[in-house]
């Protein structure tokens, strides 16, 4: 497994220009940003799938920065993609920022997914905006010659996120609560889970991740989940994102957000 070496992580504070703001679903916007300083290259930052950023809210709408998963990094265009959901004043201020406005961002933060280069059939499961980090993970797997399968869950067809982008990388299956697209029901009820997979990566609502972890455990499949605990500082100082693990209480923003399910007390 290829895993982020915590000792080699460097964080940067960078001003980004918003180049695109695209409606991606109900109350969700896909922002594409590029460094305001053209000499700053994202490929030099060592960004890995599963890491996140801390965004300063425009006009100081909130005192604290807002943590947002890194959705994708396009080295060819030097663009950072962020999928932002309206969750309050801070995220709304970020979403409402006009094209060519500046967002100050600290990145990359946290530890990302492990990547099994010998794996043959990884399954990437996302619920709601939890699909965000799976796009970059899927693209990285594809770089290694591994074709992932995606399973995404949403309330209805208008809430499905990044389906086209994910479908360009691997087969993509959808479950909706109301059955308006794909299979009706929870992602854990989707027929694709009857197939055999070499590993499972998951991000989304906690009940969904717990259910996925149970399936992975029962089939003895390697599984990592990306937790979405409330974060304040993003560097492990404020202690508001603490998670109980087999190694004691840890800060999700610093030790995670990605964890092997066997580390988490809610799974053991």
Summed up, the helix count is 5
How many runs of DSSP E, i.e. beta strands? 15
Give the structural class: alpha/beta
Low-confidence stretches: 4-8
Average pLDDT taken over every residue: 94
The appropriate CATH architecture of the largest domain is: 3-Layer(aba) Sandwich
Arrangement of strands in the largest sheet? 10-9-8-7-11-12-15
Q: What is CATH's topology name of the largest domain? A: Rossmann fold
| CATH top level label of the largest domain | Alpha Beta
- Largest sheet geometry: 7 strands, mixed
Which of globular, elongated, flat, extended, rod-shaped describes the shape?
globular
SSE run: EEEEEHEEHEHEEEHEEEHE
Strand content: 25-35%
Characterization of this structure:
The chain has 3 domains: 6-109, Translation factors (Elongation Factor Tu (Ef-tu), domain 3, Beta Barrel), CATH 2.40.30.10; 122-226, 3-Layer(aba) Sandwich (Rossmann fold); 227-268, Dihydroorotate dehydrogenase, electron transfer subunit (Dihydroorotate dehydrogenase B (pyrk subunit), domain 3, Ribbon), CATH 2.10.240. The strands form 3 sheets. It has a 7-stranded mixed sheet, sandwiched between helices. Strands 1-2-5-4-3-6 form a 6-stranded antiparallel β-barrel. The chain is of the alpha/beta class. The protein contains 5 helices and 15 strands.
